[in-house]
Amino acid sequence: MNAAAPSDQGDQTLSKQTFTYKKVDDCEIKADVYGPGGNQRRPGILWIHGGALIGGSRTGLGRDQLQRYLSAGYIVVSIDYRLAPETKFKGIIEDLQDAYQWVRTKGPDLFQIDPDRLAVIGHSAGGYLTLMSGFCLSPRPKALVPFYGYGDIVGEWYSRPDPFYNRQPAVPKDEAYQAVGKQIISEGSGGKRFRFYLYCRQQGLWPKEVAGLDPEKDPSAFDRFCPVRNVTAEYPPALLLHGDQDTDVPYQQSVLMADELKRLGVEHELITMKGRGHGFDGGRDGMKDPEISATFDRVVAFLDKHLK
Fold first, then answer.
1. Given a cut of 60, is residue 253 above it in pLDDT?
2. First-to-last C-alpha distance (Å) of the chain
3. Contact at 8 Å (CB) between 37 and 9?
4. If we measure between CA atoms, which residue out of 60, 51, 48 comes closest to residue 197?
5. CB atoms near residue 8 (< 10 Å)
6. Rounded-to-integer distance, Cα 278 and Cα 127, Å
7. Share of residues in the chain with pLDDT > 90 (%)
8. Of 157, 102, 91, 96, which is closest to residue 127 (Cα–Cα)?
9. The whole model's pTM is what?
10. Exposed/middle/buried for 289, CB within 10 Å: 0-12, 13-18, 19+?
């Protein structure tokens, strides 16, 4: 595992370390760990970035949100995972599982995290992986906080051409596939990969390209990748957040997940951000927006309830 220098977050009482938690072929898959240092064991957050499983990286965690979690006394572990379409669903879920086990087994000695007090938080595709965490991780996390996540990956919203994205000029097929390749990667910032995502949404190809499976020919193959189909009474408490004007991930995705949690008696809450769209928490104002700040107060209170 490779440790890096202290953080540049601006608060000298905090530190950042970068570790390689896994290696696949020549691809080092990394995690950034933020915390106050010292010998006190603290509860932790496994934070998962968005990007449609196609782009993004562990550096996507906003500074104001990070500081909110750190100020509340949590250690934050922001992870990378292999990206699609070069890596398919199965490999991405394996990375999530391996990251979680690495935090549980290595984290107590490396950065004083409490392995029995872990929550998972993620945004968009990271929210999807957060919902996956409720049944694919063992032991189960103590709490889940998916921001604008989704529990069904083969609904028409993802497996049919999307009306919203088709308002934009069509992405040529050649351009889309030139934006991705065959080499395994775990960090994928930049606009080119978004062009591939846009092409997939315009054509209704996301499930097929990311899973390597055809939802028309074998819909049951997606069962194990759909959180809404895998909720049981043992599912962890969940706080779902979603804007009701989301044009990327339909608000109804969180409603459906909340309905299933309710049906099975799982503790949960759905915070509806009225008039807000996708990425409602990542605007210029951040925590300066009173509604966003108050929402994160509720997130921290939820974490405190289940981890402290």
1. yes
2. 29
3. no
4. 51
5. 7
6. 12
7. 87
8. 96
9. 0.94
10. middle
pLDDT of residue 283: 76
Residue whose C-alpha is closest to residue 280's, from 242, 228, 254: 242
* Residue 92 near residue 136, CB atoms below 8 Å: no
Closest CA relative to residue 32, chosen from 59, 50, 65: 59
254 Cβ contact partners less than 8 Å away, ≥ 6 residues apart: 146, 148, 149, 150, 240, 241, 242, 270
3-state SS record for the chain: CCCCCCCCCCCCCCEEEEEEEEEECCEEEEEEEEECCCCCCEEEEEEECCCCCCCECHHHCCHHHHHHHHHCCCEEEEECCCCCCCCCHHHHHHHHHHHHHHHHHHHHHHHCEEEEEEEEEEECHHHHHHHHHHHHCCCCCCEEEEECCCCCCCCHHHHCCCCCHHHCCCCCHHHHHHCCCCCCCCCECCHHHHHHHHHHHHHCCHHHHHHCCCCCCCHHHHHHHCHHHCCCCCCCCEEEEEECCCCCCCHHHHHHHHHHHHHCCCCEEEEEECCCCCCCCCCCCHHHCHHHHHHHHHHHHHHHHHHC
Residue 203 to residue 240: CA distance in whole angstroms: 29
- Cα(92)–Cα(210) distance, rounded to whole angstroms? 10
Separation CA 121–CA 266 (nearest Å): 18
The pLDDT confidence band at residue 101, using thresholds 50, 70 and 90, is very high
Dig out the tokens for 42 from the structure: 């603290």
Radius of gyration over every alpha carbon of the chain, rounded to an integer in angstroms:
19
Q: What is the mean pLDDT of residues 128-137?
A: 98
- Domains of the chain are 15-152+225-307 (3.40.50.1820)
Helix axes 125-136, 89-111, angle to 10 degrees: 80
For residues 289 and 280, give the distance between their C-alpha atoms in angstroms, rounded to a whole number.
11
